[in-house]
C-alpha cells in the first residue's frame, strides 16, 4: 500500500510503542517514558480526528450502480458477518478479542436470538420472530433514550470515576449498538410485516446510539494517558500484559468505528430501497490494510503496524485504494465499504482487473 496523504493520521512506524507501565513511573526501558510519549504512541488511532464524522452534503439515489439488488446484497453480507460471529466468535466488525474478558448480557441475548433465528423452521418461525420482537423491544426499553447520559467526565474526576463510566458506558454502548444491529438486520429485511414495522420505529435509536458511541469515545480518549490506561484495564477486567494495552485499545476503537459504519449503512440502505433516496450518512476513519484486524496477538499486531502503512484513513479517502492498492492488500471490511460507497462497477473493475 502506498504512503498516506499529507492530512492522514500519523502511522505507527513514526511512533514509539512506549510501555504504559514504564511510562507511568516504572522501571525497565530506555525509551522516552513521559506521559506525552505514551499518549503519542497511540495517537494514530486515538487522535480526536479519528472520531470526527466526515459529512458529505449529498443525496444518494437508486441507480445502475446502486440498484435495489446491489443494496440487498450488502445486507446479505452483513447478515453473513453476524452469522460468522455466532459460529466463530469474530467477524469484520466484532473482533475476536473484544469481549474476551467481559461479554455484556445484551449481546449474549442477541447472540442466542440470532442463532435461533438462523436455525428456524416453518413450524417455529412465528415463535422465533416473537422472540426477536420482544428482545429488541426490551433492549430499547432497558436502555432509556440513548445511553449517552454519562459520557462526559466532570472536571477533576478521579480515574475511578473514569473506570466506572467506562464499565457502564463505553463497552456497553458498543455491545448494545451491536445488539441492535443484529435485531435490525433481522427485523428490517426478514419480510415479516409486523417485524418490519417495529424495526422501522427503532431506526432513530440505531442512529442516536451510533452518535452517542462516537461522542463517548471522543471524550474518554481525550483524557490523560493515565486515564486511558485505567480505561484499558477496566475494559479488560483482569490482569493484562502492559504490551497488550495498545493492541486492545486499537481493537476497541476500531470496533467502535466499524460498528458505526455498519449501523449507519443499514439505515441508509433500508431507506434507499424503501423510498429511492437517502442523505449520505457520512463516514469515519478506518484501518484498511489487510492483516491488521486478524493479527493473532499484540506482537503480531505491532509488527504489522511498524513494518507497514496500516492505511488508517477517512471513509471518503478509500477511493484512492482503487488506484494505489491491490485487492490482496486491502482487508475484507474495507473492500465492502469501497463497494457500498462507490458502487459495484468501480469495485468490480478494480477487483478483477
Outline of this structure?
This protein has 353 residues and is mainly α.
Q: How does this model look, in words?
A:
The structure is a single chain. With 353 residues, this protein is mainly alpha-helical. It has one domain. Helix content is 57%, strand content 3%. The strands form 2 sheets. The protein has a two-stranded antiparallel ribbon with strand order 1-2. This is Rna polymerase ii mediator complex component. It comes from Ophiostoma piceae (strain UAMH 11346).
Strand content: under 5%
- What's the Cα radius of gyration? 20 Å
The pLDDT mean sits at 82
Helix fraction? 55-70%
Q: Judging from the principal axes of the Cα atoms, what is the shape?
A: globular
Largest sheet: 2 strands, antiparallel
Unreliably modeled segments: 1-40, 145-168
The number of helices is 15
**Beta strand count:** 4
The tally of domains stands at: 1
Structural class: mainly alpha
Along the chain, the helix and strand elements come as HHHEHHHHHHHHEEHEHHH
